[in-house]
Amino acid sequence: MKRLTTLTLIIPLLFCTSWGFFAHRRINQLAIFTLPPPMIGFYKLGHNYLVEHAVDPDKRRYIDTLEAPRHYLDVENYETDIDSIPQSYNEALAKYGLKKLNENGIVPWQIQRTYFRLITAFKTHDSLKILKYSAELGHYVGDAHVPLHTTNNHNGQLTNQVGIHAFWESRLPELFSGEYDLVVGQAHYIENPLKKAWEIVKHAHGLLDTVLDFEAKLNQRFRSDQKYAFSIKGNIITKQYSIAYSRAYQEAMNGMVEKQMRHAILTIGSFWYSAWIDAGQPVLKNLIQMPLDDEEKKATTLMEKKYHQGKIIGREN
Ligand SMILES: [Zn+2]
To answer: What pLDDT is recorded for position 315?
Structure first.
């Protein structure tokens, strides 16, 4: 066996990118197939864009200090009872102030905001913006389905479970989503997008105890050398939750990750569909493609550059 030198890097693959890039892309991709005939042709043409840009909001965290809180809501930092948090942004702003909102997360309001941007894009027949805001809405709705995006214990750091975030939302779908049934049926109209966003967050928050407790119990059953697996590529060793441990976690939670992925796919398709209805059902053929203006081009180039340099501004998940 090759001897490892002191230069060998050990990289724990336990960091988070919110649902993981893999799952975000898969969720956006599958949401296309929930759409009705007047929409599906356009979305199929935009397939590559919707998949590739499913993770733009995560990349934007590398250039924009205001981006990180758009992906989560630390419920306990607002109230002990989630129902006491005002659902409307203006009421929440009046109650908590902007600083507190920006520190503790705004995902339900970000979903609402992105939804309105998508309606405007439909109304102006701007094909690129329709794809952009569809991709981003998919991202935020996806994030709101992740229980660890609804808590200040977002990476298990308060319960000695560091790494659980990426374990739940990246490792499990990467290993097992091939076994999931992700055919979810047809998109439906959402009467009240903000109310829907809150329902998603509340449901995800309700799953949190199971997510944490089951991993803690499993941790007692597995020795450390059974819990983690190492792989070596060149001079790089990666540390990862073992397949046996991942399988046991997945089974203990009785399909939770699959159910959350299924619900995210159907809900994203339904948000896209509802925005199109609210925009007056524009015909999605022969749309204009407005070129990016200089400012948008510059922002995109900078985002990719900073992302590849790899330093998130603000917290990771
Ligand atoms: Zn995210």
So the answer is: 66
